[in-house]
Amino acid sequence: MEILYILLGLAVIGGVSALIGFVCDKIFDLYYKRKSAKEHQEHPDFFYQENIVLEASDLYWEQNKRTASIKAEIDNILAKIHYYPEAKQKELEEKLRELRFDYQVNETALTPLREKMQEERAKLDELGKKYFKNYG
């Protein structure tokens, strides 16, 4: 019988703790939503710039992913080319030429995207330092 009371007490304590946690979560959620809405209203140019940075970053990383996949394919072919007969090696060398050209084109396209991303990030950092005391 005593064990039943102990288990019941633990269940009540656990339930009360869960309820307190849930209420605290809702209170903090409401507080931060209001704070975020106020910041968005007071500094719309900062959040507009933040969206520009995210778009530039997405473009850069998509291009980087394409470049990395081409490089991985080149590395894979180079690692295995010596194990194939000469006829197959000639085919692979032609494919390597095409892949290297594609890699060069993609790597060249990556540079301006990186510069654009860094430039937009610098603008965002300036706005962040201007508007928020604990930014960065």
Protein architecture, described:
There is one protein chain. The chain has three helices and no strands. It has 136 residues and is an all-alpha fold. α2 runs antiparallel to α3 (86-131).
Structural class comes to mainly alpha
What separation lies between the terminal Cα atoms?
A: 59 Å
Which ranges are low-confidence, i.e. pLDDT below 50, for 5 or more consecutive residues? none
Overall radius of gyration = 28 Å
Query: In which range does the helix fraction lie?
Result: over 70%
- Number of continuous helical runs: 3
- Tell me the β content: under 5%
Listing every helix as H and every strand as E from the N terminus to the C terminus, the arrangement reads HHH
How many E strands? 0
What is the mean pLDDT? 93
Shape: flat
Major sheet description: none
Quick summary:
The protein is mostly helical.
Helix-strand blueprint:
Blueprint: H1 2-42, H2 44-80, H3 86-131
Relevant terms:
136 residues, flat, mainly alpha
